[in-house]
């Protein structure tokens, strides 16, 4: 399966009540060889891996002091909610930050960018206008920004979340194992 290995992020743990803003708190990548999940320390590093994951699949050895012989850093289970990014999303230009906010009903994550001066940009048009008004960001292009939202893994949505679609009830795994 080409490019089949996925990168995932986990927004809030299901153990604590969702704050008003559900956002990503841990980044992880799956090793192509052993399929274990490795925690990626920074968003920047995560985005670097994600930006070329098809050409350069993630391997445990890429992380310092890590190898396929080590136990996984984190297990994919319903103790937290997992969302899977599309592969090969562009790396966020320097100084900008990409943010994702989970809707309260877990139906979707909304992507937006924050400029170095702290302005929120929510659409490609806003990015275009911003870059036009701020010629100091030369070399940064609209194509460096991508608003695709990651896929929410239905089997990891906490039980307490009410969803319009009750179809995912069959996935309910009640245990918080640790
Ligand atoms: Zn491995």
From TrEMBL:
CDD domains (UniProt xref): MeCP2_MBD (cd01396)
Entry keyword Membrane: no
Claim: Metal-binding is one of the keywords in the record: yes
Gene3D superfamilies (UniProt xref): 3.30.40.100, Methyl-cpg-binding Protein 2, Chain A (3.30.890.10)
Comp. bias regions, Polar residues: 7-21
Example of a GO MF term: zinc ion binding
Any one Gene Ontology cellular component term annotated for this protein: nucleus
Primary location: nucleus
Boundaries of every CW-type domain copy: 21-76
Source superkingdom: Eukaryota
Keywords recorded for this protein, A-Z: DNA-binding, Metal-binding, Nucleus, Transcription, Transcription regulation, Zinc, Zinc-finger
All copies of domain MBD, residue ranges: 82-152
Subcellular location, record wording: Nucleus
SMART domains: MBD
Region (Disordered): 1-21
Stored PANTHER family: METHYL-CPG BINDING PROTEIN, MBD, METHYL-CPG-BINDING DOMAIN-CONTAINING PROTEIN 1-RELATED
Protein name: Methyl-CpG-binding domain-containing protein 4
Originating species: Flemingia macrophylla
